[in-house]
Amino acid sequence: MANNIRPKEMKRITTVELANEFIEQQIAEVRRQVGDKKVLLALSGGVDSSVVAALLIKAIGKQLVCVHVNHGLMRKDESEGVVKTFRDELDANLIYVDATDRFLDLLAGVSDPESKRKIIGKEFIEVFADEARKQEGIEFLAQGTIYPDILESIKAAEGKKAVKSHHNVGGLPEDLKFELVEPIKLLFKDEVRVVGEALGLPHGMVYRQPFPGPGLGVRCLGAITRDRLAALREADAILREEFDKNGLAGKVWQYFVVIPDIKSVGVKDESRYEGWPAIIRAINTTDAMSATIEEIPYSLLHHITNRITHEVPGINRVLLDLTPKPVGTIEWE
Ligand code: XMP
Known about the structure:
globular; alpha/beta; 10 strands; 10 helices
């Protein structure tokens, strides 16, 4: 436990110089811990696992085996971006698993939010474990645990109740017993980003907005269908593109589209056109425990509405969610 507590004298990493110092220390520490053994890492493409991957590639190169599981609930072009950055640019030992069908088949017809979360979390571990069993000589498991995760688990151990069952990798089956490598476990998120930049990761990856483990699965409300999921992915990509172009991407903490499982009547090409509504949610927060609504200029909202309703098949309305947290949670499920 003692080495899970951030020492009071530890300097906050705010500059590239401090980040480089940290990186050098961790490279030495990882080499000492791991020796010539192999390390496995679930690489989601989020900032934490990406920073751990880049750090370990520097420390132990091809001894690191990264596994990227595409659960079919990633955003547009996201998995491709992970492969491009890590396999093509950083020459990582990367296994890409397209498990879309496994996940979507299991989720078919399941509408209860907690059941969906549990299925996604459990299946994720199974897919990852299947890959781990195929590898020979793995003795370590690297994880992108950061300091808030440790603080959170201390709270959980004290019996404080969570609103949702969050899913991140952990709890591998009994036959897979690895020693953990957690090089960023004493860092806060802002420090992880500074380290990520010092490691040369792309800006978009380092400053990527938070994305929940169950991905678009908790934004395609109710029972997920492939057609509604495809519409969600396209609408979300348009929202992100427009926020990027209009300078909101770096200013708003989290912004995304949600599509409920309802249709309304509309009209297109002079005919009846039943479609789903796309709901825009854009929030600001410091710790995700509470959140306020970002005011988006109406002209931009009109433009986004126009694009989504014209470019995305199946959507015939765009709505704006003005609910702070509390009373709403950030995600709808
Ligand atoms: P809620 O919806 O609980 O979300 O207000 C708070 C923040 O957590 C993100 N979130 C998750 N992150 N695994 C994660 O790593 C999850 O299962 C998960 N569910 C929600 C959410 O996007 C928001 O930033």
